[in-house]
Amino acid sequence: ERANELSRQHYKxxxxxxxxxxxxxxxxxxxxxxxxxxxxxxxVPFYEEARRLTxxxxxxxxxxxxxxxxxxxxxxxxxxxVLTAQANMAKSNHITGE
Length: 98
Fold this sequence. Notes:
Layout: H1 2-29, H2 40-57, E1 61-65, E2 80-84, H3 85-91
Antiparallel strand pairs: 1-2
């Protein structure tokens, strides 16, 4: 029981960090490149903001790559943005503004 409680608390304390890590893994699997100066800590704020907006508005938000991974986009803060899930799905693999 104590182990389960510690596990739940660890997940609660590290949810956005784990989301950022999974986002990085998914991006790399889709072809994104990690810059030499990549750190997970630089990307975590985007996942925190998406989670915060989802909780506050009740509208699902995603972290999106401005230049898609499939088009050689980097997985780094200068290529990330927070969009509603609907806007992200509509954007698909297009570059913002296309």
